[in-house]
């Protein structure tokens, strides 16, 4: 079943171009360069006062990227929290809001409890799920399926990029209905999403370079991941993936937070992975990178050809991903952090598909 791959995780990483292509095909009419006709929703994006997202683990981090998209493109305020905190906090919810739940399995106990709390507080319920017949899907007014087939590896990969792609598409649906995008911007974002499957295929070609970098990472005791804007949740996901399967301690930070504490950790034994494809925030992130370098930290820069040409010399090692629109850059960068975690863990001989202490679906509280 693993085909030519050593682990399910590696197979699932390579299934991502197809998985996101199915999602894009569902929401986007490639020929007409517009949104596809989608089934009616149980809520109306145009009049929503706000949106609340709850999820756990990697699914939560997908939602965190979604916050950047929904707020900047659709001007829709989005509150997000991990389901295990949200459910016990008894947050006040404005009637008529949208509550969205993200879950690969659709059975995560805390996420389901958060859903039931929102359902009893006059919220429209929507879910982004992979398992279509799951409890979370059954209890939702609108279901956005991930269409990525069974995910076997405990470490979520293709479900994560399918979640991101679904949220990216939905943020465009919301932006269109709310009329928040300036002329011409909408088509550019549609084109960006249309280009996504090919960009992910190209990103996979960085696998050998990343395996080389993983050699050094596998000897580290701690690793720091930095990112800004919508790349910040990808830094968190990079740290989560690495911890989960290689058991190396890792932390993700917003690049701008570095000087507020974590910089104290930096010395010449600490690899610092900076996720900075070229965009309007790159210069700021690069100045954080220089602060790390000045203290002897080993920088691994994940960027694109433009970013590498300008800033590559600051880094000890560079991963070059395809040049894409900044809208989809977090999805493309996900492939790099997944491969980094994978190669590190595989090199260390870890049980990549069944990491210790973890279950695929967390149905206990
Ligand atoms: O099935 P779910 O998406 O609700 O699961 C949520 C988390 O348990 C899950 O994403 C977990 O963090 C993964 N093992 C991460 O790789």
UniProtKB/TrEMBL annotation:
Subcellular location: Cytoplasm
Function as written in the Swiss-Prot or TrEMBL entry: Catalyzes the first step in hexosamine metabolism, converting fructose-6P into glucosamine-6P using glutamine as a nitrogen source.
Keywords: Aminotransferase, Cytoplasm, Glutamine amidotransferase, Repeat, Transferase
Residue ranges of every copy of the SIS domain listed in the record: 41-180, 213-355
Reactions performed catalytically: D-fructose 6-phosphate + L-glutamine = D-glucosamine 6-phosphate + L-glutamate
Stated name of the protein: Glutamine--fructose-6-phosphate aminotransferase [isomerizing]
Range covered out of full length: 244 to 608 of 608
Active-site residues, as the UniProt record annotates them: 360
GO MF term (any one): glutamine-fructose-6-phosphate transaminase (isomerizing) activity
EC numbers on record: 2.6.1.16
Domain of life: Bacteria
Lineage of source species: Bacteria, Pseudomonadati, Pseudomonadota, Alphaproteobacteria, Hyphomicrobiales
Top enzyme class: transferase
Assembly mode: Homodimer.
């Amino acid at each position: 079943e693993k085909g030519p791959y050593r682990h399910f995780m590696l197979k699932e990483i390579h299934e991502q171009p197809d998985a996101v292509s199915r999602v894009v095909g569902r929401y986007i009419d490639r020929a007409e360069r517009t949104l596809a006709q989608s089934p009616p929703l149980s809520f109306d994006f145009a009049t929503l006062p706000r949106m609340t997202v709850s999820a756990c683990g990697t699914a939560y981090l997908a939602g965190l990227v979604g916050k950047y998209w929904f707020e900047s493109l659709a001007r829709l305020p989005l509150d997000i929290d991990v389901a295990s905190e949200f459910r016990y906090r008894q947050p006040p919810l404005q009637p008529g809001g949208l509550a969205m739940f993200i879950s690969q399995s659709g059975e995560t106990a805390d996420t389901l409890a958060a859903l039931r709390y929102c359902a009893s507080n006059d919220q429209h319920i929507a879910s982004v799920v992979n398992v279509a017949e799951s409890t979370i899907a059954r209890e939702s007014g609108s279901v956005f399926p991930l269409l990525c087939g069974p995910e076997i590896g405990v470490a979520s990969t293709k479900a994560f990029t399918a979640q991101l792609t679904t949220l990216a598409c939905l943020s465009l649906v919301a932006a269109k209905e709310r009329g928040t995008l300036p002329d011409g911007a909408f088509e550019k974002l549609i084109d960006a999403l249309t280009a996504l499957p090919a960009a992910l295929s190209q990103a996979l070609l960085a696998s050998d370079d990343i395996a080389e970098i993983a050699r050094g990472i596998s000897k580290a005791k701690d690793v720091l991941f930095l990112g800004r804007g919508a790349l910040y949740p990808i830094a968190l996901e990079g740290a989560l993936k690495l911890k989960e399967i290689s058991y190396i301690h890792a932390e993700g930070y917003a690049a701008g937070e570095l000087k507020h504490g974590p910089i104290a950790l930096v010395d010449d034994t600490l690899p610092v992975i900076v996720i900075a494809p070229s965009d309007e925030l790159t210069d700021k992130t690069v100045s954080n990178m220089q602060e790390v370098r000045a203290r002897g930290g080993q920088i691994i820069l994940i960027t694109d050809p433009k970013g590498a040409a300008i800033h590559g010399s600051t880094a000890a090692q560079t991963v070059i991903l395809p040049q894409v629109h900044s809208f989809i850059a977090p999805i493309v960068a996900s492939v790099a952090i997944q491969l980094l975690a994978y190669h590190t863990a595989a090199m260390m001989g870890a049980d990549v598909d069944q990491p210790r202490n973890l279950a695929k679906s967390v149905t206990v509280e």
